[in-house]
Amino acid sequence: MPLNILVGAQWGDEGKGRIVDRLAAQADIVARYNGGDNVGHSLRAGSQTLKLHLVPAGILHPHTVAVLGNGVVINPATLIDEIEALRTAGVEVTPQRLQISYAAHLITPAHRALDQAQERALGKAQLGTTGRGIGPAYTDKAARRGLRMQDMLEAETLPDKIAAQVETANRILAALFDAPPLDPAPIARQYVEYAHRLTPFITDVSALLRTALSAGRRVLAEGAQGTLLDLDQGTYPYVTSSTTTTAGVLVGLGLGVTPVERSIGVSKTFQTRIGAGPFPTEVGGELAARLRRTAENPWDEYGTATGWPRRVGWLDSVLLRYAVQVNGLNELILTKLDVLSGLPELRICVAYRKGGETFTDLPLGPVGLDRYEPVYEELPGWQEDIRSACCWEDLPETARQYILRIEELSGIPVTMVTVGPERDQVIELGGE
Predict the structure, then answer these.
(1) What is the mean pLDDT of the chain?
(2) Helix 134-142 and helix 109-121, axial crossing angle in degrees, nearest 10
(3) Can 105 be counted among the known catalytic residues?
(4) Which position among 21, 28, 37, 41 bears the catalytic label?
């Protein structure tokens, strides 16, 4: 039963999409198990850049079935736009190639309105949400008043259910936020149209995956966001509303306890995050601009879903080791090694200091990170352009030493390194 899992080992935006795209070449099914359209993958295929927010990156391989599990919250408008964009790009998207769990929850304009109103009300204490309705959709799910994809299968009752959901949100918007109401009638009509288009894709994903695993087919579970945004294990309250760690796979895909062949974490060779919250190794000035680059290229440090500039800093091995532990990772993939080329020296946070004490592991996980001072280890950089490197031997010695030090600090083997944005700018290391 070859289940493989790939998750982000930082605050998301680690470049998981292109890694999923690469690993999907050997997978029969790629299954997304959490999050919504508040995330995005930028994928390079030749001269073309594709941006996906919901559809798993494995859809680019013609033999691979893409799956959205019950743990995902779905904005139908976004999903339909993606399906059409993929088809325009020549990618076959049929009900046989894209399957959506009947138990996945719907995002409506009411959720987006609530999300944005709640964030505005926080003022300076804003969490930095994308305003796409993710939190309110998960709130409705937990409160047992949410709408699911299965409701789209019932055309007669769907308009009334959508209207009722919008009217409930209107009462909250008026009472708590003095926000204008939404008109439920056009929203209900629009969702009937969405249902007509998406109904063929809705199925029992859990049964599909169980059958596939029992038959020995390879399933790759694709996580959204990153470990440090996990609702329970992340930098709470500056987190997302779903389980982003490997533990969320079984719940988000409706599987029982299943043997895992590979548990893979993806980390940049430096650190980034979007939105508010603690960031001990954050840098500013010229160095930040150097790491972030410009917004001219899809792979620069600007959010795929938001366009916001990402905060940047040195790699934090304390948090990376934490991610390895809470996920049970047995492999690490490093991205964007090429971005560090030209820097005279590099830093890695190897510990934290607080009140005269030094911590290599955090006593309460990533809680209260703003109260810790990072302890750095300095390593020499390299000047060579490594974007044409094809193997380990092609990398400068100092780049190899940097990778080996990350491997040592994380406690697991580095099996892959990216040296550029293109599909083939990847060095397979095999854990050696």
Answers:
(1) 92
(2) 110
(3) no
(4) 41
